[in-house]
Amino acid sequence: MTAAMVISGTIGWLVMVSGQPVLEVVFWRCVFGALALWLIGWRMGLLRLRGAGLPALSLAAAFLYALAALWVKQLTLTPHLIALIQVCVGIAMLAPFAHPAALAVQPLSAWASLLVLGVVNTGVMYVLLYGGIQKLPTALTGALSFIYPVVAILVDWAAFGHRLQWPQWIGVAAILAAAAGMRLGWSWPARGRGRPPRL
């Protein structure tokens, strides 16, 4: 889960480096992500539908990421298949808006950015993400999810020189402290109870 959130934090940088319109980026992310997920799942023998049930549920998770985190814990599908369904739905929805011919004349750096975005930041990241969600307690999953914005802020600072202000540094520290507290089981000190009144 931590690795998935760290990988997610580099998405914005890859989008900027690609120099492509947002719809194009998302479409190609789905295409390359689907290819990567199919290859990983096929190689590991994890794309079997037999006995999986394929519920109203996995397709809905593909559309609504926020609800997916809750539903994934209830599904018997492998993380690879859940992510593959999600990106295939994305391909179908975005295909009418894509312009492959326009991208064909773009520099190699644009293709490289989209390829990394699809294979690593989608294929590998979703396998790690959904695998973590299925195994971790909900509270810990929520806490670790905040690693993503911290990494995104740090990547933005390192790649583009955007300086963080002190409130942002406080937010980063608070997020990391919360994640550590959830992982290590920290708790607030118990308040001392006063003596019972004498009768």
Describe, in plain words, how this protein is organized in 3D.
With about 200 residues, the chain is mainly alpha-helical. It has a domain of about 140 residues. It has 11 helices and no strands. About 5% of the residues have low confidence.
Features:
199 residues
Structure at a glance:
It contains 11 helices and no strands. By secondary structure, the protein is an all-alpha fold. It has a domain of 135 residues.
Radius of gyration: 21 Å
* Average predicted confidence as pLDDT: 76
pLDDT < 50 runs, ≥5 residues:
49-55, 57-62
User: What gross morphology would you assign?
Assistant: flat
Number of helical segments?
Answer: 11
Gap from first CA to last CA: 56 Å
Task: Find the structural class using helix and strand composition.
Answer: mainly alpha
Number of E-state strands: 0
Note the quaternary state here.
Answer: single chain
Strand content range: under 5%
What order do the helices and strands follow?
Answer: HHHHHHHHHHH
> How many strands, which pairing sense, and closed or not: the largest β-sheet?
none
What share of the residues lie within helices? over 70%
